[in-house]
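Chain A, query sequence.
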Amino acid sequence: MIRKYALLPLLALVVSALLVTDLSALPTGFTQKDLITGLDAVSSAVLPDGRILAIEKYGKVTLIKNGVKVATPFMDWSSKTNSRFEKGMMCILADPNFATNNYIYVWYTKASGNNGIDQVSRFTVTGDVVDGNSEKLMISLGDSGPQYHHGGGLAIGEDGKLYVASGCRGAINDGEPGPTNAQTKNRVEGKILRINIPEGDIPSDNPFYTTNTGDARAVYFWGLRQPFTLSYNSNTKAFWFSEVRGNSGDDRVNEFGPPGTNYGFGGTGTKNPLWTANSAGISGRAMIGSLWYTGTNFPAEYRDKYFFGGIDVTQLKMQDAAHSGAKNFSAFQCPIDVKQDAVGAIYVTTRCQTEDTRYGDGRVTKVWYGTEPTTDITPEKQSSIAAASRMNWSVLPGRILIDLEQAGLQTVELRSLDGKVLAVKNFNAKGPGELTFASARGTHLLVWKSGTSQAVTKVVL
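Chain A, predicted structure.
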């Protein structure tokens, strides 16, 4: 199902890494545990409350709750998914405000006509299942074509927008229409797209908003063959993505350039890759993995490192921000995706290459350092994590210094533990500011609000 020249739209992976001589073992202090096996798995997703989703290419999603598989499918969209060749369900991403709206975004190939339609839809989660009647189309990525080059990645950036990887829909060996699609700005194929959430409207500050038409107004980057996973580092603000280019050793990792950047597939681009598969030591294998590790469970030398890998290889690698040289971590058989949870454990999805055939030995494996961190996030901790993703703060006498991560009208309140509002300030932009208060000591609540979204964390004064 994955050809070197026409790779399966899988989010791919890898894990963290220091130079290890024995590639069959994790570094000292790390532990791994299979959470689920026997899947046609292509990726996983971590919900803010700690639940894990195992996503299968043909459209079925299994829920892992408190480390145990839930018998009832979280989502069974198999009858509505075209999974031929490189098509299928590829990625699920939780809304940043999942704690209050229960939205997830799903990249899949909708069964429609001969080829199907690649698209991103929004669904609502009710309890431990997806509401099958809640689908809302966010953006259409066009006719999926006969077989190849679909893309499949989703990520949310610092601006709170949803970024979508869309492949060029080329024929085998890069025949048309792929190159032309990639170099035509007024098409959605061969692009990174940018849309608003949760409604799917298109931001008016996109680079081609006034010159393109329809969904193509969402084009943010162009000139791409087969972009896969995208990963944003909230600590360093780095935003990188993987791309399969097809020539042996030329698969690459790219960084986000200025809006409107042409990455050159099918023509002449203005942005060189950070590095290629050849330079990372996986020549001839499609480099499709992508994860910035930003957690605190792993030792400090693993933090703010970029993890990546290749299809049909066993080496998981790690790269630093300066992309000064890849280092090995350990061995997983055919690792194609890696995700991180709120407490810093990672989840490795493995799936080996097949062509238009279901794979039956895929698995999702949890990896952690030291004592296993709990994945059962209480509502209070979930709110605290949500607040931390919206603002950073420090306490001084009589004031709280705040650095907001989101633009637009928002409110920060200081409350007592019984809910009494002691101080409040409205903000209209991201960046630094401060909240002053007359007198308060001990533990209080710091509350962030924007529209119907709210996040709460404790602060000690």
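The helical segments are 98-101, 178-183, 379-390. The CA atoms of residues 288 and 452 lie 37 Å apart.
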